[in-house]
Model the fold of this input.
Amino acid sequence: MFDISSKSDTLRQATAQAIVKASSTTITLIKNGKSPKGSIVDAARLAATMATKRTSDLIPYCHPIPIDHVKVDVSIKEESIEVAVQVKSIWHTGVEMESLTGAAIASLTIYDMLKPIDESLSIESIRLIEKKGGKKDFYENYSRRLKAAVLVTSDSRGKKEDQSGKVVINKLKKEFDIADYKVIPNNTNIICSEIIRFCDELKVDIVITSGGTGVGPHDNTPDATKKIIDKEVIGVSEMIRAYGQKRTPLSMLSRGLVGVRGNTLIINLPGSVRAVSESLDSLFPGILHIFKMLWGHTH
Done:
């Protein structure tokens, strides 16, 4: 199976449809409640619901996921029975296979129940109607490329030895042009000066710092950041720590701060390569909406 451990939980939703073609005589029997094996509507609803919850047992590469909601609609048309299965889950991965499996099993159940009286039966289609809730739904479109600056604070590393800053650059370059990248000592005044330069002179859209977020004697990045921001964005820093805490019990020790100066977003990340990578996974794509907010656009 694919590794989805880096994905964030979001509300995922999918709707699939199956169509079973039947003769007009069979449709009349169904409408009159004379189907030989009982109500196909009730049976299809039960079958779809059960199949949805067992999808990972039936399809080898599907992840077992929590199912929060299943809605099954069965419509009797003039020459067909249509089944729509909607599935919802708050999880790392989507639910399209669950909705498709539910629709497929419902249509097979209908076929099984009607085959004694209708040799013309056929399952015409099983298809996905809609899916939403994954990361793609939250990417923003901008009229220009966004600009970023990366600042690594370390008393022991230079650019040659730095790894975390390069991870940040690789993660950002899809959405941002990298305007500057520096490695500086853990000195409060130097950190303040560089962040101000990024914001006020280079006018970048985002500044990502790496390092100096702990409680050690040389961990000064959050303190420096707090001095020069206009507003703190507490929810983002809380989310980064909560995301990290599910992966390591040490995440809670980070004092990383997130705030804005003018129209620039500033995000403090830890110094380790793993922590930086995981933190960035948690940020995107949701964080991209903040730039429209900073520019005064409506939500």
In short: The chain has ten helices and ten strands. Residues 139-294 form a domain with the Molybdenum Cofactor Biosythetic Enzyme; Chain A fold (CATH 3.40.980.10). The beta strands are 10-21, 69-76, 80-91, 122-132, 146-153, 176-184, 206-210, 231-232, 258-261, 264-269. The first strand starts at residue 10 and ends at 21.
